[in-house]
Amino acid sequence: MSGTSDLPGTPELPGAWDLPGTPSGPGAGDACSEQRLTTEPPAAPAPAPRRTPRRGPADPVKALMHQHRDLCERAVDPLEIAAGLEAHGITDRTAARFRHRHVFSLAEEMYARVPRDEDTPRAVTEDTTPRPRATWLLRALLPGVSCAATVAALHQTQGQARLLAGIAGAVAVAVSLRAALTRGPLRAKGSPGSLVWTCWLLAYAVLGDGLLGAAASGGPEALPAAGPDSPWPITTIPVLTLALACAPAAWLAHSFGARARGRLMTSRGLEEFAASVRPLLLGTVGSFLVATAALLALTALALGEPAPYPQALALGALLFLARLLAVHGFAYAPAVILTATATAQATALATLFAARLPYCAFLATPVQALIDTWGPGTVPTLTCGTAAPALLIHATRKLTRASAHAERATRW
């Protein structure tokens, strides 16, 4: 044996030392070197793209202006924008999300950022509160004058002449009342239903107590007539008092609107404005009740009849609050309350007549008990006395809002 082939463990076949998959033969070393140089490690998997969290608008006020574009374009001062924002549910707490402490400062920024032409009116800085005018003051006096003349004619006439005087007086009072309520501080756009039920309440104030007392005793046996001895007596004091109270009602409504407008211009937040207007509203209602009570005493003294203070004051407060709410654009709730009040009075009358049917005497028991205990005036006192506080609570919520006073003052 000679050479390497004689060594133990040496393979006899050529190429046996080559590894599987390794090229052999001439140039095999160069091929292996080239393969090792050109082979690269496998690429690492690409990382998953990170999701960038969505951000809100960089300018939240701009987005709010786009949402309320019409409001910003037609507003003549920041107060109208503040009132419009409040009407859409934006409060001082909501304004903090727009980097403002209250709605008024937010409205000022929105108003300042609206592009305007040179002809567009600027914000009004001077007081534009309407001053009392002789025209609507005279109109407010007309219902009282015409009603007083009608009552005097009813007390001075008899028979057919009294009937004609009553019809002519009712027409005159209706015309003068329309003149007082269509112009001036008491002007409002109410529903026709409110007018119908208001007329019912006034008619009940004249005829209702007498009819209720007559029905409770089995009547009425005659037509209504003036005088306490009549089978169906007419009560003219409440209606005459309310007609005379149109003048103080117009003055107080004007004063309330003007002073609330002034508070709106000086307040720096919705809560501050509501807190300043609430005692103003309560003072206005209290002043009207005081004026009505004084007129009621004077009217009773002039006619020589007892003054029905509870029912007259309750009815006066109800009608004044209903009109004040309607003047500021809240006519739905007064219409509902007036309808419920008139329905309750009509139901009380209907139960007395329905009790005359067979087996229906029990229907008159509640009303009969009230009449026997406190008199016929209990029904209007309870109905109007319940409705008036309900409207007062509603008024303290609605009339203390900036949107109730933001409209521009109207020259009457």
TrEMBL record:
The keyword Transmembrane helix appears for this protein: yes
Coiled-coil annotated residue ranges, if any: none
Region entry Disordered, spans: 1-60
Origin: domain of life: Bacteria
Transmembrane region(s): 136-155, 161-181, 193-216, 236-258, 279-303
Keywords: Membrane, Transmembrane, Transmembrane helix
The keyword Transmembrane appears for this protein: yes
UniProt-recorded name of the protein: Integral membrane protein
